[in-house]
Every structure is written in structure tokens, then in C-alpha cells.
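Q: Got a minute? One more chain.
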Amino acid sequence: MKTMKKEDENKREGVRSRPREREKTRPTSTLEEEKESYVRIHEEACRMKQDTYKDPTTGLVVFTRYAHKKRGTCCGCGCRHCPYGKKSIRGGDIEDWNEKEEEEKEEKTTTKKMSVTTKTGDAGTSSLFNGERVSKSNVVFDALGDIDELSANIGYAYEHCLELNDSDDLCRRLLFCTKQLVRIGSVVATPRQSSRARHIERTTMDDSCVKQLDRWIRETEDVLPRLTTFLLPIGGKACASLHVARAVCRRAERAVVRLPRCHTGDVPRTFMNRLSDFLFVSARLAVAKERDRKEVRSDESSAFGTATKRRKSIGVAEILVVVLAWIVLYYIAMAASDRSASRVL
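A: Always. Here it is, folded:
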């Protein structure tokens, strides 16, 4: 009987050890993919306030973190999602438990020292705001890259506008646009159909930013001459840099429009369209604030007439300075020769 019991125990141990041996031999990438899959399913189950979910790898039914919180104490079984650290304590309010835990998690992550290099994108993927890993060739990252490039170009134009006369309002408006682009980037990085309500709420935009741009466009057009033809992107550094930002804005708008409307909503699309108009009138305003510069229209006979005249005037001034210098030197030499002659006499 004892030998039979030992054989049974050995068989049981053998059966238990086989899965562990298999887990050791399994590649790390497979284990990470399985972990990501059940973590995503678990978060969705908690959001729906479900007590259990089914592990897609093992087929076993697993208690959620929500179920443990509802029970209020640790069962001592070493559960996968035990929130008590295997200690018997009382649970909190079930209605707001999810928000409290997420806030604690965010506080822990914000206190950590952030590094630019994370090495998580070495394999060609990156994460969205909702934690979803997506290939960098996805159209979402095309839109995010164009928005980032647009923000950098507006920042470049901002630095040139600081050199203009009475440019405080224009610089303040450009700063407002860059801040709104950060918000639009967060909206693009949070797909509405696959994100949690908390993420969607944090990245929701209203149309107040669009109305603000409309007001600024009307105010700028009131002080500018009526536009009757196309303009060339010439008229100073601030004007040219704003036209570059306008062209990049059109490209970023096309990238955002390529995304499904359910992904971004209507406000980002409308804002990007209005922003290009605002950058155009801002470029015209920058020309008006430049000294000795004017708008260059496409129907003019010589687009570079202003610059050529300016260069000619500079050449004439240099010639006059040289001639005056020679005259002064001549009189100085004559005066020196008269003094020497008087001493000899």
C-alpha cells in the first residue's frame, strides 16, 4: 500500500512538474504576449464590474480585483489579482475603488524619474495613451508625427515674431495654438472605440478653441488690406516661417482626416482646418509689422523687386561712405603738408 501511495504521489508530482518545465522552455515573447492579453481582459472586466474572467491561455476562471475588493478580505490563496498583499484587511467603497486605485498608480508613476530612452520601441511598436501597443507604421503615428512637426514649426515662427514691433498679441496667440496641438495629440493617441471612460474624459475637447481662432481671424482681417490675389511666402523671417507652419498644418490636417471620425471626433478636424487659416492671416500681419517690407503678390512683374532695390540702395550707400573717407584723408594729408612747409620756413 505504501509503495502504491508513493507511486501515486510521484505521478502527481510528475504531472504538476510538466507544466512548469514547459513554462521554462517557452520563449519570453510568448509569455509577455499572454500576460498583455489577460491584463487587458482583466481591466475590461473590472471596468464592467465583473467578479471573474476567463484566462484565454489556460481556460481557467480567475477572480478580478473588483471581486477581491467587494469581498473585503484576503482569502489567503495567493490569487493573481489580490489587492491586499495577502493580508486580511477591510475593503473600501466599491463604487469608487477603481478611481482610487488608478490615482494611486498614477502618483507612483509620476514620482519616478522619467528618462527619454525607454527602449520599448526598439521592436518598431509604441504605446498609445490607453496603453495599447501599435506599430509605428500605423496611420495614428503619421498624424502624431505631423502634429509634432507643426508644433515645432510654430515654435520656430514664435521666436522670429518676438523680433517684430508690437508682437505680444501675436506671440500669445501662437503659444495658445501650440498648447492646443498638445491636446489634439492626446485625442489622436486615445482611440474612442478601445479606450476606457477615464482616458476619454481626460482627452475630450470642446469647440471653444475653434471659436477663439475664428475671433482672432476676424480681428486680423479687419486691420489688413483686402486680399484680391495669391500671395508669395515672402516678407521677412517671421512671415516666411509662418507660411512654412501653414503648409505643415495642411499636411497634418490630411493625416488627421485619414483617421476614422469615431477615433478623433469633430473638434480636432475643425481646429486643424481653422488653424491653417489663422497662420495665413498671421503671416500677413507679420509682414505689416516688418520694417521696409511689403506683401509680394503673385501677379507682380518682378517678385524680387523690393529685395533688388534694397540691395542697390545698400551698394550706393557703401560707395558714398568710401568717397567721403577718401576726401577726409585727402584734407588731412594736405593739412599735414602745410604744417611741415610752415616749419621749414
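A: The chain is about 65% helix and 5% strand.
Q: Perfect, thanks.
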